[in-house]
Amino acid sequence: MDAGKYFGTFRACYGIKDAIILNHAPVGCNWGTMIYGTSQNLNDLRMSSSIMHEQEIVFGGENTLKETLISMDSNYDSVKNPLLVLLVGDIPSIIGDDVSGIIEDLDIEKDHIVINAEAFKGDAKKGYEDGLLNLYSLIPKNFDKEVKDNNNTNNNTNNNTNNNTNNNTNNNTNNNTNNTNNKSTNLINLIGVSIDDYKIEADLKEIKRILKEFNIEINCVISNCTYSEFLNSPNADLNVVIGQGFEFAKIMQKEHDIDYISVNYPYGIEGTKKFLKSIISKFENNAYFDEKAFELKYDSLVDYEPYKKVSVYMNGLYSVPVSVIGDHKAESMAEFLSQELGMDMEIVANYGDDYKQAVLSSYSTMIFGSSFEKGLSIDLDVPLIRYTYPVFDNVSLCDNIPYAGINGALCLVEDILNAALSRCGKFEFKM
């Protein structure tokens, strides 16, 4: 399953939570992006379409585009929705609509950007990368440099103060000063997380909770942030990329001297530990940069008692054959299932791979994937654990039932065990 470049670009842009999206494309593209984008929040409808029909395809869609632009700019408040993103699809690109000329002729009040997102020019991942790169062009002319300058001034002042203190105090005072510095907060951008990911709100809440325990805060989540947060993303000390958004991270490194690292999605207790250690390894001033301090802190956060209650059931998961299908999260999920639960990986595949027949021919007793794997689970008569985008046939309402992080590991194990136990056959009550 790969919806093409258009849908990937849409995800990158729709992740700016106060932006409005205008799809200049046939009505089907608008319908598709709406279904994908609002599957976990039906109230979050911030898009419209120029609704190209046969007439526009033959004679051009410039008139309907102009009317829709004027309508969206006036009907959406510029304070509440300060950014308008115009996505240009396949048909208007092929027939040569003069989109840039129309934009120049109109006096659009909001910040706005035009992005060519023809589906036939790449897959969804390329669309996401291109979408973020286009959005980056808004940062240089809008970035709040004063905030960055103030941060640098404060850092310089602190450094000078520390130097003077070090020169005029004894070793005990130096140690106290160093301990204070180690407690400073490190700021990161989390890149590659999307607003329409399954369980995204619960996962982000858990990730933020754990990071805060290690004196790390998230400056901006891309793509799940406000326009203001996006524009101020250069205030971060480090970019943490999860599966996608590498080109955005590279240009941030080049233009703003912000280093970046690539990490897996934090599934499981060990997976979360690796996630944290990778980030902390970039911050020598972090109090938990020391291996021993980190291990002591992390162990104090993990409660194994709930797992002991179902240890017999968990032993039954050992060597159970399963298949994992998904986007960049598939590898992380497979690692959790195999290394932490001891399950056997029959098939691990990414969207775009030809995996259907391989799964049907496997010994899989459970499938981990999206709503698109429902057909496979029905054909094999095995449970489907939905964990990755897109999910249409399940909702995630509670923000305290994540799949990511320490608490997420427990929630995942609970769902896996319940899915397995639900297949145990009939239970009859007889008087």
The CATH architecture name of the largest domain reads: 3-Layer(aba) Sandwich
Fourth-level CATH superfamily of the largest domain: Nitrogenase molybdenum iron protein domain
Shape call: globular
Class from helix and strand fractions: alpha/beta
Helix count, DSSP H or I runs of 4 or more residues: 21
The radius of gyration over CA amounts to 25 Å
What profile does the largest beta sheet have? Answer: 4 strands, parallel
What portion of residues is helical? 40-55%
Name the beta content range.
5-15%
The total domain count is 3
InterPro entries: ChlB/BchB/BchZ (IPR050152), Nase/OxRdtase_comp1 (IPR000510)
Organism: Methanococcus voltae (strain ATCC BAA-1334 / A3)
Protein name: Oxidoreductase/nitrogenase component 1
Domain Nitrogenase/oxidoreductase component: 6-349
Explain the overall architecture.
The chain is of the alpha/beta class and about 425 residues long. The protein has three domains: about 130 residues, Nitrogenase molybdenum iron protein domain (Rossmann fold, 3-Layer(aba) Sandwich), CATH 3.40.50; about 120 residues, Rossmann fold, CATH 3.40.50; about 120 residues, Rossmann fold, CATH 3.40.50. It is about 50% helix and about 15% strand. α13 links the parallel β7 and β8. The chain is globular.
How are the secondary structure elements laid out?
Elements: H1 5-14, E1 19-24, H2 27-37, E2 47-49, H3 54-59, H4 62-75, E3 83-88, H5 90-95, H6 99-105, E4 111-116, H7 124-136, H8 139-142, H9 145-168, H10 171-182, E5 186-191, H11 200-213, E6 216-222, H12 227-231, E7 238-241, H13 246-256, E8 259-262, H14 269-280, H15 291-301, H16 305-309, H17 311-315, E9 321-326, H18 329-340, E10 344-350, H19 356-360, E11 367-369, H20 374-380, E12 384-386, H21 405-421
Parallel strand pairs: 1-2, 1-3, 3-4, 5-6, 5-7, 7-8, 9-10, 9-11, 11-12
